[in-house]
Recover the amino acids of this structure.
């Protein structure tokens, strides 16, 4: 009799295991290395979103598998391959920068695994790829926002652009900005190329001081942008400076110190102006958990990649069917995310608003929202 | 480009070059006694910068005390790596030593990455270092004025040690022939350790100045600077202390000149520095001040 009960229990147990599946979702993020500042805050959002919504509608649980790509292209490629072939993930979130996300997408696209990028804004990323998606805006939109704001709201007519030739993000954003700025009647007086990892920009800023443009556009990441800001102030160059989302983190302000006062940049979201009910709820939950309500925009977008994925999975009859998930991600319209309302198109790009922030007294302060 | 900007760029190149020079001296000294290219040197520099950071930001020490802490800490670390990693390999082929050096370099980078994370930290620069001097339109900070002065002072000190002291004589003798030095009753291992200590102390000073000029410290900061300082040492003639300083200035000026005259190619300034290295190796393999490899290094 006892044997029979044991048997029955084990059968019952097996049955429950079979019903509530565990579905694996991969995340590729730079948790160490020079881009760690961005990777960590973004993953914080994915992790927190997972904590809020760990199961699907049908009771299946989602297991997150994180791989640290150290901000490196090769590490990204091997990490992505590992997630797909040995961990058997159904979808991949991340890779953060455009350069690395392009690697992830190239591999995942062949294996028909959908990728949702959080902040990879390069235009080319989703071109000719079936399984590439993103919740952020593209660089051509971001470049237009900066160009129009500088021309119309600030009345700045001439610009120097400093490009990081080692970053796809930087090249793409610079191009988009130049196009929009010229179209609006502005003039690019000089374009200077640098390489990420450089620290010494004295030769660059000395040159800009002589050229004397109305403002400087720096489509760079925080390590280089902060050093340029510092060295500009040192030689008495105090023209307005504008960047994209690449400087949207606290490390930028820490590294730049007093010299980044007045620095402007585009971002996806600001906690002080929550765009949706979901943002309000998320910020409240986040504040309860961490004791602070200053939700980083990268954290919000990280959370949105996860929420958008879960939303798409819930609409599939088999939530582990990667092809269906991909189709449903692209079909998301009016999706209410933490970072704002997201409309996905067939190419996998998101149409969404941008915000402009300015650094005031060591804090990034919300200035205005620009709708597409 | 007008004269003013030209002079400004010259000043920029001078302060950048002296930083490379400081680090290049360490490469050259170790090469002189051991024929070893110590690839961990750049990472010792990183450790020096980190120690300075901890001294000031965590322990709240004044700048000079933090520099002392960094110098003593890095010198000890340099001597320790010699004792642990290089000394057991004294009789091994040179290639084993080289690979060990690369191993030490990776070890230091990764241990700092694990312990402190890869995010850049803001270095607390003392205010007087950032004080701006305006000399008739040429603008520079106190730090960029101090770097060349300190470099030249340290160079003079090193030369004095090498040529006017008993230890210096032993170091120079060691560069000729290790076996004979041992026969003369000199403890070669102790002398090598002293050389590592001196080189690492200089690297720490270089690291601190680097962090003062470009106020961010992170575990990978030593990689590229180390490579360029190595290029500087080779250009100047590896094994020659004076050559290392000259090489440092040449690399520093090359970078500034590329950015100033060819802004479109500014992103390739590292490539220009390394192309220069290749050219020097093609036409004068021993470097500018380098002498015949079979003879003394100093």
């Amino acid at each position: 009799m006892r044997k029979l009960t044991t048997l029955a229990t084990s059968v019952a147990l097996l049955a429950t295991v079979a019903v509530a599946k565990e579905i694996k979702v991969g995340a590729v993020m730079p948790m160490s290395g020079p881009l760690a500042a961005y990777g960590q805050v973004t993953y914080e959002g994915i992790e927190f979103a997972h904590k809020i919504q760990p199961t699907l509608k049908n009771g299946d649980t989602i297991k997150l598998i994180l791989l640290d790509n150290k901000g490196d292209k090769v590490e990204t490629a091997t990490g992505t391959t590992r997630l797909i072939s040995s961990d058997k993930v159904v979808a991949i979130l991340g890779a953060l920068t455009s350069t690395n996300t392009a690697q992830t997408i190239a591999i995942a696209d062949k294996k028909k695994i959908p990728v949702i990028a959080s902040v990879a804004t390069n235009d080319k990323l989703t071109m000719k790829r079936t399984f590439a998606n993103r919740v952020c805006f593209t660089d051509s939109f971001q470049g237009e926002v900066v160009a129009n704001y500088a021309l119309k709201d600030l009345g700045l007519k001439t610009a120097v652009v400093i490009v990081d030739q080692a970053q796809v993000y930087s090249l793409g954003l610079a191009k988009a900005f130049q196009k929009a700025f010229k179209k609006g009647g502005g003039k690019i007086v000089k374009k200077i190329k640098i390489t990420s990892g450089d620290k010494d920009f004295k030769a660059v800023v000395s040159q800009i001081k002589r050229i004397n443009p109305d403002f400087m556009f720096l489509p760079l990441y925080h390590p280089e942008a902060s050093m340029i800001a510092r060295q500009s102030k040192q030689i008495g160059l105090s023209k307005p400076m504008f960047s994209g989302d690449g400087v949207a983190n606290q490390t930028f302000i820490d590294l730049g110190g007093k010299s980044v006062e007045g620095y402007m940049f585009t971002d996806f979201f600001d906690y002080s102006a929550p765009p949706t009910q979901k943002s309000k709820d998320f910020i409240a939950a986040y504040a309860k958990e961490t004791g602070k309500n200053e939700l980083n925009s990268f954290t919000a977008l990280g959370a949105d990649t996860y929420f958008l994925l879960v939303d798409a999975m819930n609409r599939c009859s088999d939530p582990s069917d990667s092809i269906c998930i991909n189709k449903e991600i692209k079909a998301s319209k009016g999706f209410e995310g933490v970072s704002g309302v997201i409309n996905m198109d067939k190419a996998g790009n998101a149409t969404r608003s941008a915000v402009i922030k300015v650094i005031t007294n060591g804090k990034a302060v919300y200035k205005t929202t620009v709708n597409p | 480009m007008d004269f003013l900007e030209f002079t400004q760029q010259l000043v920029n190149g001078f302060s950048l070059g002296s930083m490379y020079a400081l680090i290049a001296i360490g490469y050259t000294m170790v090469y002189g006694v051991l024929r070893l290219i110590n690839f961990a040197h750049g990472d010792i520099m990183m450790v020096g910068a980190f120690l300075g950071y901890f001294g000031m930001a965590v322990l709240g020490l004044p700048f000079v005390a933090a520099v002392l802490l960094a110098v003593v800490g890095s010198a000890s670390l340099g001597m320790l790596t010699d004792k642990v990693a290089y000394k057991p390999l004294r009789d091994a082929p040179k290639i084993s030593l080289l690979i060990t050096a690369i191993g030490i370099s990776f070890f230091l980078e990764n241990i700092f990455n694990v312990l402190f994370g890869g995010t850049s930290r803001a270095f607390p620069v003392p205010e007087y270092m950032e004080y701006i001097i305006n000399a008739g339109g040429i603008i520079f900070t106190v730090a960029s004025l101090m770097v060349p002065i300190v470099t030249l002072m340290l160079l003079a000190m090193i030369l004095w040690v090498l040529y006017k002291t008993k230890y210096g004589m032993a170091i120079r003798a060691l560069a000729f022939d290790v076996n004979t030095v041992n026969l003369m009753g000199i403890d070669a291992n102790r002398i090598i350790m002293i050389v590592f200590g001196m080189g690492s102390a200089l690297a720490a000073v270089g690291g601190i100045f680097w962090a003062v000029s470009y106020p961010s410290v992170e575990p990978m900061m030593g990689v590229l600077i180390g490579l360029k300082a190595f290029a500087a040492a080779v250009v100047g003639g590896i094994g020659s202390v004076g050559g290392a300083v000259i090489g440092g200035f040449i690399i520093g000026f090359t970078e500034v000149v590329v950015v100033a005259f060819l802004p479109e190619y500014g992103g390739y300034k590292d490539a220009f520095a390394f192309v220069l290295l290749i050219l020097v190796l093609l036409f004068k393999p021993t470097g500018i001040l380098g002498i015949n490899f079979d003879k003394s290094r100093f």
